[in-house]
Amino acid sequence: MSDWEADSEEDGPGGAAPKPSRALPAWRPATEAASAGVCENRAAGGDKKERGDGWKGRPRQGLAREPWQSGPLEYRARGSPGGRGRESARSPPLCFHLDNALVGTVIGRGGAKIKELEESSGCKIQVVRGNCDAEIKIFGGNDKQTKAKMLIDDLVERSGQSNSGEKYEKDSFKHQHVGTTYCHASRSGALMSVNNNPKQSINWTSLRENKAKYEAMKWADLPPIEKIFYKESPNIASMSQDEVDRQRKENNNITCDDLKESEKRRIPNPICKFEDAFQHYPDVMANIRKVGFQTPTPIQSQAWPIVLQGFDLIGIAQTGTGKTLAYLMPGFIHLDSQPIPREKRGGPGMLVLTPTRELALQVEAECSKYSYKGIKSICIYGGGDRKGQISMVTKGVDIVIATPGRLNDLQMNNFINLRSITYLVLDEADRMLDMGFEPQIMKILLDVRPDRQTIMTSATWPDGVRRLAKSYLKDPMIVYVGTLDLAAVNTVEQKVVVIPEEEKRAFTRYFIDTMKSEDKVIIFVGKKLTADDLSSDFGLQGIPVQSLHGNREQCDREQALEDFKKGRVRILIATDLASRGLDVQDITHVFNFDFPRNIEEYVHRVGRTGRAGRSGEAVTLVTRNDWRIASELIEILARGNQVIPEELISMAERYKQFQLKKEMEKDCGKPRGRSWKNA
Ligand code: ADP
Ligand code: MG
Fold first, then answer.
1. What are the tens digits of pLDDT across the range 19-41?
2. Which residues of the chain, if any, have pLDDT below 50?
3. Residue 449 maps to a domain
4. Distance 250 CA to ligand 1 centre (A)
5. Can you tell me the distance from the alpha carbon of 363 to that of 352, in angstroms, rounded to the nearest whole number?
6. Which atom of ligand 1 is closest in space to residue 300's alpha carbon?
7. Strand 94-99 vs strand 175-177: parallel, antiparallel, or unpaired?
8. What separation in Å is there between the alpha carbon of 322 and the centre of ligand 1?
9. Residue 344 carries which DSSP code?
């Protein structure tokens, strides 16, 4: 799975780094001067490493030109085909032709797909583009070649884009072994003709006409779904409209809507007590009593009656407001109440898609904590033990919590049956889109029955999430908690320190030195390298820290989080990998060493503290390089009635002036590119 942490250096305003200031700030202890100097030198070295010939600077191998450029091209994912591995040297390559319109599907963005195919099949795959079609050569042993071919078949079939006027025939497109005259067996075992199959055209009109019929056939053998499990309690049913409105307003301003386009349905009244939703489900109630929760959170109070009535739901609420239980509790009941018993369904009944491994593990932990009637769950994520995950899945589980990349991999290789899913959750949908998971989600959902119940959660409601909701939810109801504008959690005091870049480390050290013994802080940084660098600095200074970023081994990431959760370390240095969804209740401080890429991420970071009704503090270092975000940050601070530093206001003002001047210069045709310092 790819990580989204920034790896590249972003130029500061005007591309100029601010001048190092020699003066030590008042808070900086004298002994820090030397160590801060060391830090600065190391940081400079670190930057060089990142841009230079370290692991990040390795030259890209193989891709001589982008394969989708015109002209006869050759794509090699790694090394030269046939040049690696004894098997490939022995067996002649399996060759076939593929329409140019379909080649992109096999190659993937930047060659990612072909790399994945190579890894899954153990073959090397070469693509040589011609004018109309491309020749695909698969190098490897016979079994592996067949596997690679099958994977490509599936991929092209799934892409559903055989609309170039030529037919993509899974088992009948031309393929042969180079240098031999024999043909290669297809998946169905039939021998293929080597060449010159006349191209057939597809009757698209008839296909379209039959689409509904085929869809119905595809899902015909599935059992019916039971979705309605709500019996409204008399005190909730008898609430007047005024009471309902008041209850919603007082509960963080809940607003709801029915997105069904034709006649609107009655939106169920919000519940007040856990019993209002679960009085008929004593096992759920026992779980709630066990953890000692007092009242449902606002999102739960409105989401539970909607979901238990079988409607699809979009839940938009800030982080830390209990969205996980909002979908898990009704999910448990749904799973356990289907007409076909769990063990006879031939696969899992609930699927939760989450953007990151950490979040998947966290949802899984929540699932296990509220154990319900022996329901089994499994977490499937890239970087985890693939074999172990496959073996767990094949043994039988009820709930799959997965990141889209790894699940798609298991799905493509037929290790998991998704046809039995009747309850689907797209958790943190906004984040999944940010991370580019839409294609994988699309493929996964092709195999999930369309009449399922679907729940989607998100902290924000941008266009992409709306589109996703329109495509994958059926007549959903939507529940917003709070406003849809960005608002950092109101239980967090937000402090902003405007500071020169080179003084950030010393200030951070000062902050750590003044931490109380019960404090727990996440220090957010912009780059993986900074995380490593800071943590080794602090380690050398005898300060116990853990770090979390995408270049760490999965087991180290899990260990880091575990150490932090359990309080074995009280400082976690992390990239934005940790900014969303992670729930560590006793974090007292969020410390933004680097300002995040955008203001949304700031809100998510701040939301790591002040969770479940506690208060927290966020300290954010802002340098002159961050002047672009000054005005947005001011808005967030103002909305939360926080102190706004004068320097931040003047920074925002300078940036506005700078923008104005740039506009004017553009209009007058004057040369551009003046430094911000002159603005
Ligand atoms: P979100 O998904 O909205 O970011 P989570 O579902 O992770 O938030 O919940 C945050 C924390 O609040 C979790 O530790 C969870 O156990 C706790 N929580 C959930 N529901 C309640 C409740 N009704 N009362 C108190 N705490 C709750
Ligand atoms: Mg969540």
1. 333 233 333 333 333 333 322 33
2. 1-89, 161-198, 484-485, 672-679
3. yes
4. 19
5. 9
6. 23
7. antiparallel
8. 3
9. G
Going across the sheet that includes 74-76, the strands are 74-76, 124-129, 133-139, 94-99, 175-177
Q: For the chain, what is the domain count?
A: 3
The tokens for 286 are: 């026992």
pTM of model > 0.70: no
Please tell me the predicted confidence (pLDDT) of residue 204.
67
Residue 505 has which token pair?
């480390």
Residues 641 and 328: their CA atoms lie apart, in Å, by 34
What long-range pairs does 9-15 form, CB within 8 A, spacing at least 24?
9/47, 9/50, 9/51, 12/624, 12/625, 13/624, 13/625, 13/627, 13/628, 13/658, 13/675, 13/676, 13/677, 14/673, 14/674, 14/675, 14/676, 14/677
Same domain for 541 and 461, yes or no, is: no
Give the pLDDT of residue 597. 85
Mutate which of 287, 316, 325, 609 to test ligand 1's pocket (most atoms within 8 Å of Cβ)? 325
Tokens at residue 552, please? 């760490």
Do residue 429 and residue 548 come from a single domain? Answer: no
- Give the whole-angstrom CA distance, residue 317 versus residue 429: 12
Indicate whether residue 322 lines ligand 1 (CB < 6 A): yes
Domain boundary among 162, 192, 222: 192
Q: Are residues 332 and 402 in the same domain?
A: yes
